[in-house]
Each structure stands twice: as C-alpha cells, then as structure tokens.
C-alpha cells in the first residue's frame, strides 16, 4: 500500500478513503465517538506493510545516485516493520477526534456502506465545511474495504533496500498523518 496525498482523486488512495470516512463519521456521530474496526478479528491482527509516498520518492532519488548498487535489483520500500490494523486504527481515529476500537462490538457496516449510506448528506457537508467538490464521489471506498478486510499476513521483506544503504524508516502512522495534513490544507477534509 502506498500512502500519500494526491490533489485530485485516485480510486486506490487508501489515505483519502480513510480520511473522508473518519471525517464524515465524526460529523455524523460526533467528536469522541467510538468507531469500530469493521472487518473482523483476522484482518485486525494480520500483519502488513505500507509505503509512504515521500519515503518511496526518497528511495528513488537515492537509487538514482548509486546506480552501480541498484542495477538489476528489485526492491520493496516500506516504512518499517510489519504492523497490524490493531496498532494503527486507534491512532488514525484519534487524529480525527474519534476513538478507534477493535472488532466485535456493534458495527455499522464497512467503510463503503457507512459513507454511501450518507450520500444524500455529502453535498451539504461539503458546502458547510468549505471542502472541494468531487472528493467523495471520486474515492474508491470499496478499495478501502477490500484492502483493510484482507485476513492474511501481507508484509514485504525490505532487506534489499537496506543492503544497498537506504535505511530510512518511519512509524507507519506518520505517512498517514502527513497525507491527512496535506488533505486538510487542500480542503479535501475539514
């Protein structure tokens, strides 16, 4: 998963899908509301890795400066060690003033179901908050559901990037935080 900001919509933008979901959830349910991880226990605990767009970009710059080290090799560039949604969901929710909790309590459905269930409210919410038009319509909430609902381990071995000297790592939350901050500045989210 590449996590980052794009000024226009991208159907496969996980950060934008989550940002819009959490923003709308806060608007409807209120600040401090609990938001349940809606994809079950296996997806909650399955390990995976993400790649921040800026870390990936810096790797490309690094690779262009050391062509003799990277020639003919393939690389997985990830933010750091594998993590599970149980580690990230509460932090993502907290960014939006919500309380992220694990599966098992009363659920309001998946992300797409929740957001699309409020489709009639989108235009008013966008106008009320002074947001740009089209972000909700252009976001692939089913992509968010599909990726977050994967119940198996899907992390990548990134040792080859370290072998050639690119050792930068970051907390996976930071990639999302940076993307969310940029979305706020661009008026995609309030």
Folded structure, characterized:
The protein is mainly α and 190 residues long. The chain has one domain (2-182): Rossmann fold (3-Layer(aba) Sandwich), CATH 3.40.50. The chain is built from 10 helices and 4 strands; from the N terminus they run βαβαβαααβααααα. It has helices spanning 14-29, 41-45, 53-65, 67-70, 85-95, 111-116, 122-129, 141-148, 159-163, 172-185; strands spanning 2-3, 34-36, 51-52, 99-101. Helix 5 (85-95) packs parallel to helix 10. The chain is globular, with a radius of gyration of 18 Å. The mean pLDDT is 93.
Number of domains: 1
Q: Using only CA atoms, what is the Rg?
A: 18 Å
Weakly predicted, low-confidence segments: none
CATH superfamily: NAD(P)-binding Rossmann-like Domain
Structural class by SSE content: mainly alpha
* Largest β sheet strand count, sense and barrel closure: 2 strands, parallel
Molecular shape: globular
How much of the sequence is in beta strands?
5-15%
Distance between the termini: 24 Å
CATH topology: Rossmann fold
Number of strands: 4
Features:
mainly alpha; two-stranded parallel sheet; 190 residues; 47% helix
Topology record:
Elements: E1 2-3, H1 14-29, E2 34-36, H2 41-45, E3 51-52, H3 53-65, H4 67-70, H5 85-95, E4 99-101, H6 111-116, H7 122-129, H8 141-148, H9 159-163, H10 172-185
